[in-house]
Q: What sequence folds into this?
């Protein structure tokens, strides 16, 4: 009998895999599935960025190995972004590094700074890489419940108080995936003080910082005085510039953490293809009206979805940021749990969403709806959902269906 690999054994079955398999089966049968499952931007990358890629790739000098830290010009471009957007000065040589998307950066930093037995504080529900990047690295996760109905500060205090050994790092994600929660600068000031008191590093993911709708730009933790003494922040071009497949992100902040990530990456990769990095410079340094257009796109979709769902009898909070809606299960269906509800929604309404359970046990009363279909398709989906809500069976699996009128 072959033994299981240690790191694989620590990973649970991927909850999304079942919904994805059902989705693939339905499509193979010719069914039209309206897919709100994956946060995969459907808009084209702005033309000036594509043009820069084409121009750069025609130069044979760019076809050679690049730099695992990122091209100097790209690191300077990210430092310029932080200066413009947050008023934060970064040293391009020591305090920022280009990554193959924020997901790769966080996972490799986990490998760099943690080992077996280290305790990491991670939000629950959360984007899976936030806890599992550290689990893969051998760490132990102490979950901090977040989202509607949870007191973050009470949960954080409790987690630290009951951790043996004491935790070494805290993961934050605002605007949050999947809950779409946002925080203000006062929150970051308090969390920096807390981390300093308890000798914690902070790993902050702000991949959705440019996708906001109510006029108040989400802050960076690096705006807090002294934050660079203990915090590193992950950003990404994927959502801001509709560049998910380009795989360009950054880690910025604490020089020791950035240096640790650079050391690990120097063994693992030579950085993104140079023309992609050059095009990323064009994104950060070029016209930014395309970013405002992305915000308008998602805001319009958000408004259509929220208003249509309410008219269909499913009241869902309207997010002020991200490209996601964090929807509590309709009351009549709550006993099903998020996975079974998602299965039935796919089977009976031909609409795919992400079950909240896939983001952690504290997400089980919700589904995540990604704003990745156009407004016409959103309205079509909600018409299907309305019929499902009116006629769908709300009995948990294994329980006999009640007779009509019982």
A:
């Amino acid at each position: 009998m072959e033994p299981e690999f240690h790191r694989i054994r620590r990973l649970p079955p991927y909850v999304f895999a079942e919904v994805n398999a059902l989705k693939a089966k339905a499509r193979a049968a010719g069914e039209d599935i309206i897919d709100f499952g994956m946060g995969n931007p459907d808009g084209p990358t702005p033309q000036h960025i594509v043009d820069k890629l084409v121009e750069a790739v025609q130069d044979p000098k760019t076809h050679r190995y690049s730099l695992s830290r990122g091209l100097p010009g790209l690191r300077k471009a990210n430092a310029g972004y932080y200066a413009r957007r947050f008023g934060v000065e970064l040293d391009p040589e020591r305090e920022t590094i280009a990554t193959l998307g924020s997901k790769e950066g966080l996972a490799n930093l986990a490998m760099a700074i943690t080992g077996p037995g280290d305790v990491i504080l991670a939000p629950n529900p959360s984007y899976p890489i936030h806890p599992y990047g550290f689990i893969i690295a051998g760490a132990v996760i102490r979950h901090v419940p977040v989202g509607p109905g949870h007191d973050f500060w009470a949960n954080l205090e409790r987690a630290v108080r009951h951790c043996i050994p004491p935790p070494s790092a805290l993961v934050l994600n605002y605007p949050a995936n999947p809950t779409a929660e946002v925080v203000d600068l006062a929150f970051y000031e308090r969390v920096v003080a807390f981390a300093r008191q308890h000798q914690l590093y902070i790993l902050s993911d702000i991949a959705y910082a440019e996708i906001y709708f109510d006029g108040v730009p989400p802050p960076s933790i690096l705006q807090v005085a002294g934050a660079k003494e203990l915090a590193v922040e992950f950003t990404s071009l994927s959502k801001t510039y509709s560049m998910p497949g380009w795989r360009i992100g950054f880690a910025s902040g604490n020089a020791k953490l950035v240096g640790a990530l650079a050391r690990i990456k120097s063994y693992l990769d030579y950085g993104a293809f140079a023309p992609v990095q050059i095009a990323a410079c064009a994104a950060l340094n070029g016209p930014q009206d395309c970013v405002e257009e992305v915000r308008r796109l998602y805001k319009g979709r958000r408004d259509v979805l929220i208003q249509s769902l309410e008219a269909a009898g499913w009241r869902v909070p309207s997010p002020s940021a991200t490209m996601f809606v964090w929807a509590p299960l309709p009351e009549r269906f709550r006993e099903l749990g998020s996975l079974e509800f998602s299965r039935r929604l796919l089977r009976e309404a031909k609409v795919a969403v992400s079950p909240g359970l896939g983001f952690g046990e504290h997400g089980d009363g919700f589904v995540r709806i990604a704003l990745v279909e156009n407004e016409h398709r959103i309205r079509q989906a909600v018409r299907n959902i309305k019929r499902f809500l009116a006629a769908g069976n709300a009995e948990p699996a294994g329980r006999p269906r009640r007779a009509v009128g019982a």
